[in-house]
Amino acid sequence: MGGHHSHNHQHPVLSGKKLLLSIVLNSIITVAQLVFGFISGSLALISDAIHNFSDVISLILSYIANRLSLRKKQTIKHTFGFKRAEIIAAFINAITLIVIGVWLAIEAVQRFFEPQIINGTIVMWMAFLGILVNGFSVLLLKGDADHNLNMKSAYLHLLTDMLTSVVVLIGGVLITVYQVYWVDALLTILIAIYLVYMSWSIIVDTLKILMLFAPDNLVIEDIEKEILNITAVKNIHHVHIWQLNDHDCHFEAHIEFYRDIKLSEFDVYCEEIEGLLKTKFKINHVNFQPEFKRDDEKKYIVQD
Predict the structure, then answer these.
(1) Same domain, 152 and 39
(2) Tens digit of pLDDT for each residue in 35-52?
(3) Residue 195 — very low, low, confident or very high, per pLDDT cuts 50/70/90?
(4) Residue 231's Cα: distance from chain center in Å?
């Protein structure tokens, strides 16, 4: 599409140091839980260690995606750079979260029928350590998780891990004091349900971006109405609107004018439309093709 092109990218730069620190901390707790899980004979603790290990892999993936997304240089082969890396990482992480949730639920159901005698004291101490480490990591990523799907998926991994450690701790207490084994399984199932529920929303959000769907918060008819309020504009059609990632919203369209305007006038009108789209709709990347009495389809959305 030819015509006028403009973009403005202003969004928070996320610090990979937080992810890196979380990776180190979770690697330590994974090894510790695995070792003491075998020593105590606790399947719950070993399962938590495996869960932690999956988190380490997911955090590494998120870290790599975060570093790639910060590369500003576009090339002939990568005209958008690596700006979708975090969206892909978020999608993969959300899928793994659901798999883990289902796996935890299956394990919990089995434990209802096969309760195991374990060393509750070791389980309690290791679970408590897991709560401290994962809780600290959750606090590290919470701020960035509010406006970045990649960080949100990593945050949910760690939050779920912290909740799993809480479950293991409660189970350890009940096993030590009351020898009640089925509570651990019940709480694990509840966490698994929560995990799948939270992860599903990330999958839906990332899929919409990867499929180039229009953002949910934008009503295309409202955008059309605002642009047509500009007196020189006769028609706007062949519209495409999509998100490149969490922050960059793209808009392209053919704009038909009432008269055969000069190129310098077109630039003036484009600046007006760009300002309108950025201010009212948070669209920061636009591409317009000017038209005058061109014989083409004038539908707002053209079906290819």
Answers:
(1) yes
(2) 888 887 776 677 777 777
(3) confident
(4) 41
Q: What is the mean pLDDT of residues 168-186?
A: 80
Total structural domains within the chain: 2
Both 158 and 250 in one domain: the answer is no
Q: Give dist(CA 15, CA 88) in Å, integer.
A: 18
Task: Please give the structure tokens belonging to residue 126.
Answer: 């290791």
pLDDT of residue 261: 92
303 HSE (CA, 13 A, CB side): 0
CATH number of the structural domain spanning residue 277: 3.30.70.1350
Confidence of residue 89 (pLDDT cuts 50, 70, 90): confident
Domain that residue 123 falls in: 14-210
Are 260 and 112 members of one domain?
no
pTM for the structure as a whole? 0.73
Of 202, 137, 194, residue with least CA distance to 160? 194
